[in-house]
């Protein structure tokens, strides 16, 4: 059994310790906001917050997460009031939406650790692949999210 906290709720998984976190979240906890994209850790669709760092859920065996605190897109904000979510909506960034949960989670971790990221900081922290090509609007939206988080924008 593996025990950790997901979205402020203690969970205990009776799964093989080598089970990727992605599948524990999606299949055992019905938290389907975390997406399966590639399964190799290249696309970022499965990004979640593990103890304050952006991690790829497809590459994290649950056995190594004992005692950690994990936040998924469902636990970030139930009403889309997180600054990153607000900024992406304001900038009309999402298209198909598949990559957005992973992007939001990576950006939320970035803004928690860097309240005034440069364009290079944003590009380094959010290597997520988007097939729709939202990148220019995404950069603008994350800059807006940083301003919102700092109280400089509505």
Tell me briefly what this model is.
With 154 residues, the protein is of the alpha+beta class. Helices cover 37% and strands 14% of the residues.
Question: How would you describe this structure to a colleague?
Answer:
It holds the Pfam family Fer2_2. This is (2Fe-2S)-binding protein. Residues 1-76 form the 2Fe-2S ferredoxin-type domain. InterPro entries: 2Fe-2S-bd (IPR002888), 2Fe-2S-bd_dom_sf (IPR036884), 2Fe-2S_ferredoxin-like_sf (IPR036010), 2Fe-2S_ferredoxin-type (IPR001041), 2Fe2S_fd_BS (IPR006058), Beta-grasp_dom_sf (IPR012675), Diverse_Oxidoreductases (IPR051452). Keywords: 2Fe-2S, Iron, Iron-sulfur, Metal-binding, Oxidoreductase. It contains 6 helices and 5 strands, in the order ββαβββααααα. By secondary structure, it is an alpha+beta fold. It folds into 2 domains: 2-76, Roll (Ubiquitin-like (UB roll)); 83-150, DNA polymerase, domain 1. It has a 5-stranded mixed beta sheet, sandwiched between helices. Strand 1 and strand 2 form a beta hairpin. Helix 3 crosses helix 6 (135-150). The longest helix has 16 residues, at 135-150. The chain is globular and about 45 Å long. The model has no long low-confidence stretch (mean pLDDT 96).
For the structure shown, list the relevant keywords:
154 residues; alpha+beta; DNA polymerase, domain 1; 2 domains; five-stranded mixed beta sheet; 5 strands
